[in-house]
Write a structure and sequence with these properties.
The structure is a single chain. The protein has one domain: TIM Barrel (Alpha-Beta Barrel). Strand 12 and strand 13 form a beta hairpin. It is built from 9 helices and 16 strands. Helix 3 packs parallel to helix 4. Strands 3-4-7-8-9-10-15-16 form an 8-stranded parallel barrel, surrounded by 4 helices. Strands 5-6-14-11 form a 4-stranded antiparallel sheet, with no helix packed on it. A two-stranded antiparallel ribbon has the order 1-2. The chain is about 30% helix and about 20% strand. The chain is globular, with a radius of gyration of 18 Å. About 0% of the residues have low confidence. By secondary structure, it is of the alpha/beta class. The structure holds flavin mononucleotide.
Length: about 300
Amino acid sequence: MNLAVSLGKMKLSNPVILASGTCGYGKELVSYLDLNQVGALTIKSLSITPWKGNPPPRVRETCGGMMNSIGLENKGVHRFLEEDLPFLETLTTRVFVGIWGKTIKEYVAVAQELEKARRIDAIEVNVSCPNVEKGGATFLEDEETLRRLVAEVRSVTGKFLIVKVGPQVRDWGKVVSIFEKEKVEAISVTNSFPALSVDVEKMDFFFHLKFAGLSGPAIKPLALKMVYELLCVTALPVIGMGGIATASDALEFLLLGARAIGLGSYTLVNPSSALQVLKGLEEYLTRKQIDDINSIIGKVR
Ligand SMILES: Cc1cc2nc3c(=O)[nH]c(=O)nc-3n(C[C@H](O)[C@H](O)[C@H](O)COP(=O)(O)O)c2cc1C
């Protein structure tokens, strides 16, 4: 049975990807699963200098999901290269690395640092960055800034370039034309949804920054709609994510035309869930007597 898929020129042994921010720097998951069995892992978004993130509370369970206000905490690209790259070099699977910044210059600086590491297969530019910048506007909401951001990152990296979007997209057509023109090679959809929660005992907002990112099963139908709308206007490969917990969830995204899928929050519930999703995909294909996963991608149009 063939589970290998490709995102344009990027070949993956299977379509199951660990999503950014939910598999740490990779090492954290080694006692739960063999990382070489997933199609790719995505290192949490890195900034140019270490970033403390938001004050607690940082997570809250919701009905059918979770909210997080981690605020993109990370050790910074330099420490990552020093402390984590040697481990990632022992792996055979694809390694994607998320990047973020408060300014375009910061994104570019992170991409330049990563360029030195041959082991890194792709850069995933997180352009939705919720919860971090004061005022909450994201790079996605201003098309001219988005174009400059993507163009400048592209100009400093020869690596496979993925842009990760969130629900702030207003006009898929405009965003996609920027990505296509600036030679983005794949699009990850979606980041978490800005949401709000109230602490009734304290009679206050639950999170310090008021808004937090909603993820998990609750957002799956919204994420599927985004993936569908995106695929209506682009031929760029799409990595679909948002609320995937089972092989059946993953199949919904693949049948719509996503070429790979990301597992986020569910890895926090069950750190080895990627392997269960993979096994479930194999079982589905066996039951349907299909020997190549590519023949079901985009079946639902
Ligand atoms: C705790 C947590 C941390 C996250 N950190 C990042 C991050 O650093 N960069 C990023 O691009 N997405 C981040 N995400 C978003 C996920 O990668 C994913 O896009 C989103 O949660 C939707 O997928 P899910 O419903 O399977 O979780 C984070 C999500 C969670 C729950």
